Amino acid sequence: MTEESGSHEATLTQVTAANLTFDVTVTGPAHGTPIVLLHGFPETSASWSEVAARLADSGLRVYAPNQRGYSPGARPEGVDSYRTELLAADVVGLLDALDIPKAHLVGHDWGAVVAWVVTGTNPDRILSLTTVSIPHPTAFGWAVREDPDQQQRSSYFGLFRQEGKAEHVLLRDDAGPLRAMYGGIVPERRVEDYVRVLTEPGALTAALNWYRAMSRELDQLPSVTVPTTYVWGTADLAMGRAGAERCGEFVDAPYEFEIFDGASHWIPEERPDALADVVLSRVGLR
């Protein structure tokens, strides 16, 4: 399956890693430097469509997987199947399956968390890191513990960790509460893409299992040692300023903190051109 993406076609392919089969959208020249884009919740790889087109037009080979729980062939049962270390291992497994020794890495929201873990534990596989919305897990964990503002912003975690109840709440009224999460900012056609995937049998439970399997050990992730850019929007309802500003303390490499004034949590969809510019700057193409 292909679709137009800038001057390049975006091709949907399937890649098997760790006995799971992931749907991966691939864009850009075959011999371009590889870059992997990791989506957040409640999104899919489609959240990167506009960003991926810009990156591909700049010569990068772009890989955007639907991650564990989002791809129908990578939807195991049970909370323990969604531990963060397994989500990170999936990314390394995809690199191995695609015969990619090293790649640039970009992540948004939960995809950012996974990207931090991949980079912190496998720095030899990552050329550069760009994360969007969520800072280094140690900075985020500190904010959740110590900053009242962040505690309020993250209070929804309590609902998402309640098996059954969260699914019921988000899917009632034709998934009205799920659609409301995008705040009228994400384009409606994209929202429908996400809702279609997340209302597949078992998909929403799998996605919420990322929250249910989350461990405090994330706070102990070492500092990353590759060139890193962190992007945060001042109107992000999920991530406050305190944790965002501490992110750089956990990067032992060239670091940039990019603040998008007035941008929401949904930066890949809301500010794709500005985000693509930041990524291209980090990978050395701008």
Short description, anyone?
The protein has 286 residues and is α/β, with parallel strands linked by helices.
Based on Cα principal axes, name the global outline: globular
CATH class category label: Alpha Beta
* CATH-defined fold name: Rossmann fold
Distance between the termini: 31 Å
Please write the string of helix (H) and strand (E) elements: EEEEHEHEHEHHHHHHEHEHH
Radius of gyration: 17 Å
Helix content estimate: 25-40%
Q: How many domains would you count in the coordinates?
A: 1
Mean pLDDT: 95
- CATH-scheme architecture: 3-Layer(aba) Sandwich
Return the structural class: alpha/beta
CATH level 4 superfamily: Alpha/Beta hydrolase fold, catalytic domain
The number of strands is 9
Q: Strand share of the residues?
A: 15-25%
Number of helical segments with 4 or more residues: 12
Which stretches are low in confidence, meaning pLDDT under 50 for 5 or more residues running?
A: 1-5
Major beta sheet summary: 9 strands, mixed
Q: How do the strands line up in the largest sheet?
A: 1-2-3-5-4-6-7-8-9
Give your account of this protein's structure.
This protein is an alpha/beta fold and 286 residues long. The protein has one domain (2-283): Alpha/Beta hydrolase fold, catalytic domain (Rossmann fold, 3-Layer(aba) Sandwich), CATH 3.40.50.1820. Helices cover 40% and strands 20% of the residues. The protein contains twelve helices and nine strands. The chain has helices at 49-57, 84-97, 110-121, 137-146, 148-153, 157-160, 165-180, 188-198, 203-212, 241-246, 267-270, 272-283, and strands at residues 2-5, 8-17, 20-27, 34-38, 61-65, 103-108, 126-132, 228-233, 255-260. A nine-stranded mixed beta sheet has the order 1-2-3-5-4-6-7-8-9, with helices on both faces. Strand 4, helix 1 and strand 5 (61-65) form a beta-alpha-beta unit. Helix 1 (49-57) packs across helix 12 and helix 2 (84-97) packs across helix 3. The longest helix has 16 residues, at 165-180. It is globular.
